[in-house]
Design brief:
Layout: H1 2-40, E1 43-45, E2 51-53, H2 57-63, H3 66-97, H4 105-113, H5 120-130, H6 137-145, H7 155-158, H8 160-184, H9 189-197, H10 202-230, H11 234-239, H12 253-263, H13 267-302
Antiparallel strand pairs: 1-2
Helix pairs in contact: 1-13, 2-13, 3-8, 3-10, 3-12, 4-8, 8-10, 9-10, 10-13, 12-13
């Protein structure tokens, strides 16, 4: 009996021994920084060595800070562009490349996906050159098509968020396209063929067959885009060469966090900004989870058999 008990204990302990390195890394590099940031958010710091406890005052100041709301508005506009411009185009290209009769599908997949392999620094350099006032390719092309176009138009001063959305579109559209391609290949062929035989149009087949099948992947990609958009920092920082643009049009939330924590030295206020971002993203994740669950329930209800007792 004792040998059996010891064997049971060994079987119970052995998985935890295997998990121990992972749990240790999570505790050191995830849980500990989160706890430290939570403690720091309740302090007002004057450089790395001086701190004063202020409780929740940092969070109250964040919510009353007009510069924070400017950064939030800019980031929200950028997020809308990422979700409502980038993702539909990614889905469109995925559907085009998913057609069996398209030649060179592998080549076009590689071409569209390859920009994600380029570093953010190179992307910023490319689009900084493209949006130059007089020598930039964008102004030169627009002037060639519309001779009245001013080649001295300052894109990075007037429409920095448009430039950021276009740069992100070029870099990450192919990345999201791969997700949609994987989802489209799992759409039941027999359902689409049955709808085609019944005379359903392309839009009806997409709405009632394709879209419900790719909704789980689509909701995941939307959440991934929202999280990535709210964390954008390097691209606007490099495009604007460390500034925030005219009237802070290029200021993002993480950029404001950087200004507050590493330029002004108030790490406590920066931690409060970081936790505010975390709460917003957690709310977006919960909303995505609720909406995905409700859509799954609706699809499950539609699939119930019509006959028999309820």
């Amino acid at each position: 009996m004792s040998s059996l008990a010891s064997a049971d204990r060994a079987r119970a302990v052995f998985p935890w021994l295997l998990l121990a390195p992972f749990l240790l890394l999570v505790a050191l590099f995830t849980i500990t920084p989160l706890v430290g940031a939570a403690i720091l958010s309740s302090q007002q710091t004057f450089g790395p060595g001086t701190a004063r406890f202020v409780g929740l005052s940092n969070f109250k100041n964040v919510l009353a800070d007009p510069l924070f709301w400017t950064a939030f508005k800019n980031t929200f506009i950028f997020t809308l562009g990422s979700v409502f411009v980038q993702l539909p185009l990614a889905l469109l290209f995925a559907m085009l490349l998913n057609q069996p009769g398209v030649r060179g599908r592998s080549f076009f997949r590689l071409v569209l996906f390859s920009p994600v392999l380029v570093g953010v620094v190179y992307v910023a350099m490319i689009f900084f050159v493209l949006f130059q006032k007089r020598t930039g390719l964008v102004n030169q092309l627009l002037h060639g098509v519309f001779p009245s176009w001013d080649i001295g138009f300052a894109w990075l001063d007037q429409y920095i968020m448009v430039a950021l959305i276009l740069a992100t579109l070029w870099q990450y559209m192919g990345f999201n396209m791969v997700y949609f391609l994987a989802a489209l290949q799992n759409v039941p062929k027999e359902l689409d063929e049955a709808a085609r035989i019944d005379g359903a149009s392309w839009w009806k087949r997409f709405r009632h067959v394709t879209l419900p099948a790719i909704t789980p992947v689509g909701s995941f990609v939307v959440l991934l885009s929202i999280i990535g958009s709210f964390q954008v920092f390097e691209l606007p920082f490099l495009l604007l060469q460390g500034s925030t643009g005219v009237d802070n049009k290029g200021l993002t939330i993480v950029g404001y966090l950087y200004q507050t924590g590493f330029q002004s030295g108030d790490l406590g206020y920066a931690s409060a900004i970081g936790w505010t971002i975390a709460v917003v993203l957690a709310g977006a994740a919960i909303l995505q989870r609720v909406l995905s669950g409700s859509s799954e329930q609706q699809r499950g209800g539609r699939r119930k058999p019509r006959g028999g007792a309820a």
